[in-house]
Design brief:
This protein is an alpha/beta fold. It contains eight helices and eleven strands.
Length: 239
C-alpha cells in the first residue's frame, strides 16, 4: 500500500447524495453507492469523519419563505441530518465498516452526543464517524459544521463533495466557456463571492489553515485518487 497524502479527512456530503432520482428522500440504493465509495477510501487506511446535510429532506428556506422563524426552520434541518446520518451508518455497516453517529443535538437513544475526544478515539480505532446536527446552532450551514468539525478533529483536509468536478467562475453547464480553477487562495474565493461554499466555512478554514478540496464525489474514484496524491478538483488554501 502506497503512502497516502492525507491520513485523516473530513468528508462533507450534501443530503442530495442520498436522494432518489427526483432529488428528494432517502434512497437505500444511493446510500449503498455512497458507502462503497467511502469503503474504497477507508480501505486505504484513512481515518474518515463525515458531515452530511439535509437538503434531500428539508430546506429551511422553504419554511422561512412562508413566515416560519429561521431558528425553527434550521432546527428542523439539523434533525433531518440525523435521519441521513443513520441511513448512511446502516449502509456503511452493511459493507463491514464499524460506524458511529454523533450529533450536536442530543438524541441518546439513536446516536452519541458529539464529544470531540470521543470522536477522535473512534477515528483512531478505525471507525468512521458521521457527525450530524450541524453545529447545534441555527443560522449556520452544514458547510460551517464541516469546517468546524474538521478543525476540531485535527483533520488534514476538508473535502467538499459535490456534483461538479471543480470550482468555476460560472455555471459550466450553462456556460461552456466558464473558467476552471485548479487552486484558489481563501481570499480569492471570498473576494470572488463564489457560492460553492458559504463564506463562514471558508473563513473558519482560513483562520485555522485548513485546506479545502472541492470535487465531484461521483467521478470515478475522485476521493480515492485525491488521497493517493493526484490533483483532483479545486484546492482552496493559503497559497
Amino acid at each position: 500500500m502506497g503512502e497516502n497524502r492525507y491520513d485523516r479527512i473530513l468528508l462533507k456530503l450534501s443530503g442530495e447524495a442520498l436522494a432518489g432520482p427526483d432529488g428528494y428522500g432517502i434512497d437505500p440504493m444511493r446510500a449503498a453507492e455512497v458507502a462503497e465509495i467511502v469503503k474504497d477510501v477507508y480501505d486505504l487506511g484513512v481515518e474518515i469523519a463525515m458531515v452530511i446535510g439535509a437538503g434531500n429532506l428539508w430546506r429551511g428556506s422553504v419554511g422561512t419563505s412562508e413566515g416560519m422563524a429561521r431558528a425553527t426552520a434550521d432546527h428542523m434541518g439539523m434533525i433531518a441530518t440525523v435521519m441521513n446520518a443513520l441511513a448512511l451508518q446502516d449502509a456503511l455497516e452493511r459493507v463491514g465498516i464499524v460506524t458511529r453517529v454523533q450529533t450536536a443535538i442530543e438524541m441518546r437513544t439513536v446516536a452519541e452526543p458529539f464529544i470531540r475526544l470521543r470522536a477522535i478515539r473512534h477515528l483512531e480505532k478505525g471507525r468512521v464517524v458521521i457527525i450530524a446536527g450541524g453545529t447545534g446552532n441555527p443560522y449556520f450551514t452544514t458547510d460551517s459544521a464541516g469546517a468546524l468539525r474538521a478543525v476540531e478533529l485535527d483533520a488534514e483536509v476538508l473535502i467538499k463533495a459535490t456534483k461538479v468536478d471543480a470550482i468555476y467562475d460560472d455555471d459550466p453547464i450553462k456556460n461552456p466557456d466558464a473558467k476552471r480553477y485548479d487552486s484558489l487562495t481563501y481570499l480569492d474565493f471570498l473576494n470572488m463571492q463564489l457560492r460553492v461554499m458559504d463564506t463562514t466555512a471558508v473563513s473558519l478554514c482560513m483562520e485555522n489553515d485548513m485546506p479545502i478540496v472541492v470535487l465531484d464525489f461521483w467521478q470515478d474514484d475522485s476521493v480515492k485518487r485525491l488521497i493517493q496524491g493526484e490533483t483532483v478538483g479545486t484546492t482552496i488554501s493559503a497559497h
